[in-house]
Structures are given as structure tokens and as C-alpha cells.
Design goal:
single chain, about 400 residues, alpha/beta, Urease, subunit C, domain 1, TIM Barrel, 2 domains, eight-stranded parallel β-sheet, about 35% helix, globular, binds N-(iminomethyl)-L-glutamic acid, binds fe (iii) ion
């Protein structure tokens, strides 16, 4: 089955297969072809070029993209998509003046979500997650990571991870699964958080590993959550089960999480709203990619990651939605791209690179998705009529996605 896309106004993010991640100045370029064609065979990118080079228009299906841009689907490397109920009541409290931390201290926040997960069945949780994932895909995301972390009991965490596994089996898109048992300290362990860390290491992890439910291991290293020492223990235990570290650090406070992450060879360090120059230096040449989550900064009114500094120091950067019911109830990656330009002063080229190839790298999916590359999956966005990719962040908050394709097929 061949599909030929013709008259593409701009075909974006064209890369050779050996380009895995973009760092520093490399992020400033977005390779493209104007007036292009793209050939897809059996769901895989087969070729591309300028329309002038297209000698015969022969394929099982021809899609005319006149006036439209075509780009690889967004890659969303950080989501908490599997949750029970929304927390719009807490949102109203915040609008009225309470802070995220004050709400958490009142028993809201992550513990509130955990209570809800443990009250519903796996099937109900699955159905809710299916609906959310459909919405994620409709907005142009073609690969994503999903975390547990709203169970905080052995059965609750397993329930979420089993739902993620079912999503992997149900949807034909790359999904990576992250075990985040160390997301918050349950009330019962408030006076002895180390005992909860032991529960994670001795009871949760072996079960997660036995059922082969996770690719990555995460911990929320933050004042009032997990210390760097506790995170270190969790990451080391995860490694013994073959799980790669991918962590939440420096959201509200800098308490030493970056150093521990780098020492544990984390694939990514996510959030980084509070980030010193010294910590930026710590990340250099370590293979750990910084990930910024601008929807969380917008929604909680906290600082944005100093992403300009991160890129200017020569590091790579990925951006992700952090889609979750507490700090970022949106999975709109186009808005993530726009906010990265508006609030973090990324150029459109840098933001699109951060949301595609670099985001794929942040999930170990760079060989499969994230660029227009021969041999990669044809997970694609066809935009509505636009003049240039600069208009993607410019028309912020608008739905610019006209058509979404997964494995070459229109969704
Ligand atoms: O990435 N910071 C920790 N975890 C999530 C928020 C979780 C929640 O509030 O439910 C985050 O922002
Ligand atoms: Fe998160």
C-alpha cells in the first residue's frame, strides 16, 4: 500500500537517520523542502523531495496537500494521562488564591488523585484513558510517554501500569511506560517516608518488573516529596530491574536532584523551573536531556525553565505537555510549542525540534519517530492552510491540525 502526498507547501523536519538528537546551535535549524512530495509505503516513510523531481504520480492513494504544511507528529515525552477524575475543584481554589503547595497540604494534589484511582476499577480507568488518548492523538501527537504515580499502593500502581499496557496494545502508536511509585508520600507513611521507599523497592518494583509493565523509572525529587537520597535509592533499585531513570526534578526547589539524576545516567530530567548555572554545567556531556514543561508553568503560575540558557549553553532541550489533572490539564502540544516561543524565547525552529526529534530522544524513540526520515513511521500532521511553520506558534491556542496520520493512515 503506497500513499503519495503531493504539493506540500513545506515538508518539515527532514533528517538523515544518523541524526538522533539536536543540541545547542543545532536546534536553530529546521530542514525543510518547499513544494514537496512525500511517499509512504506500508506505514513507513519511503522517500521525499521537491515536486519538480517527481516524475510520475503513481500510488495506491494520492493526497493533495496544496497550501498545507506536513510535519512529523508531535512527540510528548512526559504525561500522566492515566488518572481517575479531574481536579477542577482544586483549580477553582487556586483561582481564589490558594497555592498548589497549600492545596497539597490540605490533602488535595497527588494524594487526592491517588484516592480516586484506588476507588475505580481497571476497566473504568481504561475507558477514561482511551478517551483522553484519542483526544491527544487528534491534536497531533503521534508518540508519547505515560507515567503511573496516582496509585501509591501496590495494587493502585499496578492498575495504572496495566492500563498503560492495554493502551499500548490497543493503539498503534509508540507508547513508553514509566513507573512513578515515588510520586508522593501517602498519608500513612507521613512520619516514616523511608518505609514507603522500601515498599516501592521491595514490593512494587518486583511486581512491575515481573509483569514487564515499565520502560522507565521516575521519582518526584522535591521538598515535601522525595529527597535526593530517596530518589537515588529508587533509581538504583529500578536499574536492577532494567528500568532507565527519567525524573521530576527542580520544579519548586533545587535540592540536589540533578546531580543524583546525572549520576544515575537519567535519560531525561524534567521540569527544571528552578535551575542554576551550576546545575546547567552539571548536565553537560552526560547524555541526559533537559525537558521543559511550559503548560505546568502557565497553569501553576510558576517560573518557566530557563530554556534559552539551557540551549545557549550547548545542551539539547525537549518540551512536553506534562498532561495531568493537577498542574497541566492540557495535552495540546501546539500550545506547548507556542508557549516555548512566547515565554521561553525559543525560536520556532528550536521549539519544533524540541517537540519532535528531541522529544523522541527523551523517550528512546528517536529511531522510530520524530522526523521525516526514510524508514521511520509515517506518523504525520497535515496542517490547515498556512504560509510557513512560523505560524504554528504564532496562531497559539488555535487548532492548526487538519489531518492526523498514524502509520500512514488517516485517523
Ligand atoms: O509533573 N510534579 C509532580 N507531578 C506532576 C503533577 C501531579 C499532580 O498535581 O497531580 C507534575 O507537575
Ligand atoms: Fe509530571
Amino acid at each position: 500500500m503506497t500513499i503519495l502526498f503531493i504539493n506540500i507547501k513545506q515538508l518539515l523536519q527532514i533528517r538523515e537517520a544518523n541524526v538522533k538528537v539536536l543540541a545547542g546551535k543545532e536546534m536553530a535549524t529546521l530542514p525543510l523542502i518547499e513544494n514537496a512530495f512525500l511517499l509512504v509505503k506500508n506505514g513507513i516513510i519511503q522517500g521525499y523531495g521537491s515536486m519538480n523531481e517527481l516524475t510520475e504520480q503513481k500510488a495506491d492513494e494520492i493526497i493533495d496537500c496544496s497550501g498545507r504544511l506536513v510535519l512529523p507528529s508531535w512527540c510528548d515525552s512526559h504525561t500522566h494521562l492515566v488518572f481517575g477524575e479531574d481536579r477542577s475543584d482544586e483549580f477553582v481554589d487556586r483561582v481564589k488564591g490558594l497555592s498548589y503547595e497549600e492545596i497539597a497540604q490540605k490533602g488535595g494534589g497527588i494524594l487526592n488523585s491517588a484516592k480516586k484511582i484506588n476507588q475505580i476499577s481497571e476497566d473504568v480507568l481504561f475507558e477514561k484513558s482511551v478517551a483522553r488518548l484519542k483526544n491527544v492523538i487528534a491534536q497531533g501527537t503521534g508518540a508519547l510517554e505515560i507515567k503511573s504515580g496516582y496509585g501509591l499502593t501496590v495494587e493502585g500502581e499496578l492498575k495504572i501500569l496495566r492500563v498503560i499496557k492495554r493502551l499500548k496494545e490497543t493503539f498503534n502508536i509508540p507508547i513508553k511506560s514509566t513507573f512513578l511509585g515515588a510520586h508522593a508520600i501517602p498519608k500513612e507513611y507521613k512520619d516514616n517516608p523511608d518505609r514507603y521507599v522500601e515498599l516501592i523497592i521491595n514490593e512494587m518494583l518486583p511486581r512491575v518488573s515481573k509483569e514487564n509493565l515499565a520502560d522507565f523509572i521516575d521519582a518526584f525529587c522535591e521538598t515535601g516529596y522525595f529527597t535526593p537520597q530517596q530518589m537515588d535509592k529508587v533509581l538504583k533499585a529500578g536499574k536492577k530491574h532494567g528500568l532507565i531513570a527519567k525524573v521530576h526534578v527542580n520544579q519548586f526547589n533545587s535540592i540536589g536532584g540533578i546531580e543524583v539524576s546525572v549520576n544515575n545516567k537519567a535519560l531525561s530530567v524534567d521540569h527544571l523551573e528552578i535551575l542554576s548555572d551550576k546545575e546547567i554545567s552539571l548536565l553537560k556531556n552526560k547524555g541526559t536531556i533537559p525537558v521543559s514543561l511550559p503548560l505546568c508553568s502557565l497553569f501553576l503560575e510558576i517560573p518557566y525553565t530557563p530554556s534559552r540558557k539551557v540551549i545557549d549553553s550547548g545542551l539539547p532541550l525537549a518540551i512536553a505537555s506534562d498532561f495531568n489533572p493537577g498542574s497541566a490539564p492540557s495535552s495540546n502540544m501546539n500550545l506547548v510549542v507556542a508557549l516555548s516561543c512566547i515565554k521561553m524565547k525559543l525560536s520556532p525552529e528550536e521549539a519544533i525540534n524540541a517537540a519532535t526529534l528531541n522529544a523522541a530522544y527523551a523517550m528512546n524513540l528517536e529511531n522510530l519517530v520524530g522526523s521525516i526520515t526514510v524508514g521511520k513511521k509515517a506518523n504525520l500532521i497535515i496542517t490547515r492552510k498556512l504560509d510557513s511553520y512560523q505560524q504554528l506558534p504564532y496562531y497559539f491556542g488555535d487548532n492548526l491540525v487538519e489531518q492526523v496520520l498514524l502509520n500512514g493512515k488517516t485517523v
